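Below is how a single chain appears once it has passed through the pipeline. First comes the sequence as given, then the structure the pipeline wrote out for it. We keep one example in the README because the format questions we get most often are answered faster by looking than by reading.
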Amino acid sequence: MEQSPCVSVIVPVYKVAAYLPRCVDSILAQTWRNLEIILVDDGSPDECGSICDVYAEKDPRIRVIHKENGGLSSARNAGLDIASGEYIGFVDSDDWIEPEMYARMLALMEKYDAKMVCAGRYDVDGRTGERSVGLCPEREECVSGETMAGRIFLWDHCDSSAWDKLYRRELFQQTRYPVGQVCEDMPVTYRLALSAERIALCDRPFYNYFHRPGSITTTRGISDKTFHESRNTETIYPYIRDNHPSLERQARFLRVRTLSRLMLLLSQAEAADREKYTGEYKKARRELAKHGRFLLTCKWFSARERVTDLLLILGLYRLLRPVFHKA
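Resulting structure:
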């Protein structure tokens, strides 16, 4: 395949000066050379902005946007607004990618006449540097949009992450990421999959997901953003139930998992946070109780998850947690 289609790679940048060169260098090292690299300086208070400008001076494929801080979704959207490539990829600025990532994904895009490709990832421990294979499709294949969405809901060798995938730009024609949210890709990726209709799966890990201490996904503590994941599934589940009934159970599983996760976080929070968010906890408990029968009969829950969730529904988890975990 000739290197004719251009891939626009969008990199949101914020307070990652120590990691940004590794990220950009990995994109510049791609064997697929026809790239448009969009570095979005999201009002970073460190030297990230100047690092972006230095790279732009060295390589004409790099474009830089300097904007006020608006968060990850805002930065991705800014990149989407100016992207000119036929294909869209995302790389978070503390991560990096393997040299053949986009060449291989484009080959699969052409082979299967797909509009979206999902590859695998490595999980990299930010403290030790240890790298292990994370979520990764089991085999190379082409699946329908509904099959892909169902696998995303189940975390079945893939999830909603934006960055281990490649998309035809047309999928974003009417779609942008919700500003001000964490878990911002959760309400977007499954819809892109449904729109794509045909998705190619790559059974090799190409993306290095760096679990950086202090990043959005590793920061502890309870805040209003803690509830974004559950609020996303509060709308995803009824939408799927009403519009894609064949995926109802998978979407319901996702809903229960996010409710359970929220209640576990609140149960183990500091006393002040538990008191502050007691209304949210009670609401989640009522919602989880509505899915009790599903929880007991659905094959996708382990015995441990069933017991945990039943204790949460009964209000006994915090009291019995030491005994439960010892057992």
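The radius of gyration is 21 Å.

See the next section for the split statistics.
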